[in-house]
Structure of CRAL-TRIO domain-containing protein:
Amino acid sequence: MGCSSSRDAETPTATTRASATTLPCSERCINDSKRTARSRRHSRRIDVPSSLTLRAYEELGETSELRAGSLQQLRSELATLVEQRVAGWEDLQRALEQPDLWLVRFLRTRKYDSARALHALRGNLSLSRYLEGLPARTGGAKPGAVAAVRFWDLHIEDSSVRYVLDRRLLATVPGRARDGSAVVLLSPSSDFLVAWGRLGVGGFTLAVLKLIEALSLEPRTQLCGITVVVDLRRASSALISTSLRPDMLRLTERLASLLGSKAAFRVRGLWIVGAPWYARALVNLVRTFLSSKLRSRLHLCSAAEDLHAAVEERLLPAGFGAGGGADEGGAEASFEECLLALQRRESSTRTSLRSSSSSEPLVWQRPRHELSPT
């Protein structure tokens, strides 16, 4: 009986210890369940061209299982940082509220390395904060003449974004480059100086990044990347001298770092067209800011026709060749029309990847050779 009494006395202690150790685990399970539910709420059906399924697997190792698991892990890491109230946690909370299509860009550009994806995402948010906090006099703008711009509040109908589009300071084309990438055209001119004075250098750059973000949300663009074309043929000496100011060079270095290691899109090529002699110093400085990978993708060409090696002439605006824009309306198409054209081209060859037995969205189907290797 003494032994029985001893066991009875020990039982509550063991139970207490068990409950003490399992309670935190239960809380963690509850938190994990909440995160999983949150992830499902942000999921959406994403249809992609079936022709890219094999390419996604070969280049990124992407399967639907890998994508779902990596997104869940990324959301879990973001939620942990938010709970810990790390520096910039408010931006991380906003990122956590974004749909999967927004977050998966960082995973795809980092070949599903979640640690690098999280680093790139935080670098993007840090750059946005930096741009929001740039002094009004950056680039020579008059103090007090610039309205505050927040990246999270920007959308395609925002006044600063419309200002950039209406003056065609940034444009795209109603088609893709020869390698399948989307195309961004930047045309620096004296209008840039006016835009910097009106929007501020930070606000202008945020508007440009928001438009590039709109392009990067296309599944095909997330895989094939973006070709960036900077047309310097109309760049004035005043614009170049302003760009060589120390504060502008610091911004240029930050942007080069974004393109090199923190971008939410793959940079397939960087073309600088028609740089005048007085812009050579700036071009050489920009080259030093670029990573070795980006330098290998940098193309300097004196004639606009040289760009035809990367982008078909019929897609380009007038001024990039005798027939520029003749077939596709590239000279007149608006940014929105170009986005719709890209979506129409994709939808014509798009295959739904939704499983009939599951309500969860899939992005890339597992390639056949992975299912039954031969």
